[in-house]
Amino acid sequence: MEIANCKECGRLYQRVSREICPECLRNEEALFSRVKEYIRAHGHASIPEICGVIDISEEKLMKFMRDGRLISTNAVDYPCERCGKPIRSGKMCEKCQANLQAALSQAARKIDQAAGSKEGPSYYSRRK
Length: 128
Ligand SMILES: [Zn+2]
Ligand SMILES: [Zn+2]
Prior knowledge:
Blueprint: E1 2-5, E2 12-15, H1 22-42, E3 45-46, H2 47-53, H3 58-66, E4 76-79, E5 86-87, H4 94-119, H5 121-127
Parallel strand pairs: 3-4
Antiparallel strand pairs: 1-2, 4-5
Helix pairs in contact: 4-5
Bound molecules: zinc ion (ZN) (2 copies).
């Protein structure tokens, strides 16, 4: 067992597996169950809404989201990674996902073209 500083409150504690001390872990669990309760009672909710009702920072709420603990409920809007538009699942909104797909396939085409112009048969035939 090692002694570590709690990431949350900075106190020294005996580190087991978490990066926060048992007390902060209890607080976090309590917050988490309040958020879950709220979603269960009210259905769909946005992050600012939850933060307004429950004494939780957006940062912490986002951490819950990122941990995947709230995403499964599909009941909370959180911002799209690219444009910030509220979404309920995945990392990006549909539009950004489509844009990314288009950009990726365009990039792939460019690579193909670049490879083709260097190693294509016309290049070799002209050189010979
Ligand atoms: Zn702590
Ligand atoms: Zn987006």
